[in-house]
């Protein structure tokens, strides 16, 4: 069972690693962007749009930091999130076991009244979703630019 569940995490490790790298780059190169993401994710039920926008616009970031962040983000998005067919196949094997165990543990913890971890889990999940959405947007822009440049002839 341990190896089957391990296959899921081995197969999708690039997604989590690239997401963590992008979040770390935001923290290091654009602290305002990192704070804006965290402010949105901290209260998932009622996102703090105004506070997030204020954090994004009030923190000054130099042009070279933004350029470096953009270059590194494009590099990570283009080359880091690519999973092979074998990764998908191995991940699928562990997915069912992992979902089953998570459902059983979550149900048991909720029934005995231990629910204080849910807010942290939802906050981190929303933060990952924001970064993945940002990655998808960057990927679509790169794909559009590539499509426009290759179809010029």
UniProtKB/TrEMBL annotation:
Keywords from the named record: Membrane, Transmembrane, Transmembrane helix
Origin superkingdom: Bacteria
Transmembrane annotation, as ranges: 7-30, 63-81, 93-118, 124-149
Protein name: Uncharacterized protein
UniProt organism field: Lactiplantibacillus paraplantarum
Lineage: Bacteria, Bacillati, Bacillota, Bacilli, Lactobacillales
